[in-house]
Amino acid sequence: MTVTIELRGNQTQVGVAHGGQRQGSGRTTGPWRTGPKLWQTVDGGVVEISGDEPTWLRIAQGGAEALTTAPDLEGATAVRLTEVEGGGGQPGLKPMAPMTPMKPLKPLGQD
Fold first, then answer.
1. Alpha carbon of 18 to those of 21, 59, 61, 83, 92: distances in Å?
2. Which of 2, 1, 12, 28 is nearest to 82 (CA)?
3. d(CA 62, CA 14)
4. pLDDT of the chain along its 111 residues, tens only?
5. Contact at 8 Å (CB) between 7 and 50?
6. How far apart are CA 30 and CA 64, in angstroms?
7. Is residue 25 a contact partner of residue 63, using CB atoms and an 8 Å limit?
8. CA–CA separation, 49 vs 29, rounded Å?
9. Count of alpha carbons within 13 Å of 67, Cβ hemisphere only?
10. Is the residue at 107 inside a domain?
11. Residue 89 lies in a domain
12. Residue 74 domain flag
């Protein structure tokens, strides 16, 4: 399982890749006060973000979900994170090309 954690503006994006599948989720956290922490637990993992308010995300094979309270990390192992220059998460979306305007419709009853 590969976990990516990326700050984009005020959003923290967390991606989980496992077995060729990739799931992502984003939370508004504000800027990070300190770098994120990743904890390995019996059932997956927990990402801890120190932003405007502390935020925790539970990581499993199916993706990431927000927790409403601090999890019990007793017995969890801290995972060393590797910083990737320029970010290694999902690439940003490119804007769509403008749509071609529709031709005016003929009034009803005039063929």
1. 5, 11, 6, 20, 21
2. 2
3. 12
4. 788 889 888 898 888 887 777 888 888 899 999 999 999 998 889 999 998 889 999 988 777 888 889 999 999 999 998 887 765 555 555 566 777 888 888 888 766
5. no
6. 18
7. yes
8. 8
9. 17
10. no
11. no
12. yes
Measured between alpha carbons, how far is 23 from 100 in angstroms, rounded to an integer?
33
Domain annotation covers residue 43: yes
CB 53 within 8 A of CB 100: no
Place of tokens 């994006």: 13
What are the structure tokens assigned to 105, written together? Answer: 């419709």
Tokens of 83: 């910083």
Query: What residue spans of the chain are helical by DSSP H?
Result: none
Count of domains observed in the chain:
1
- In degrees, rounded to 5, the angle at the alpha carbon of residue 89 between the alpha carbons of residues 83 and 94 is 135
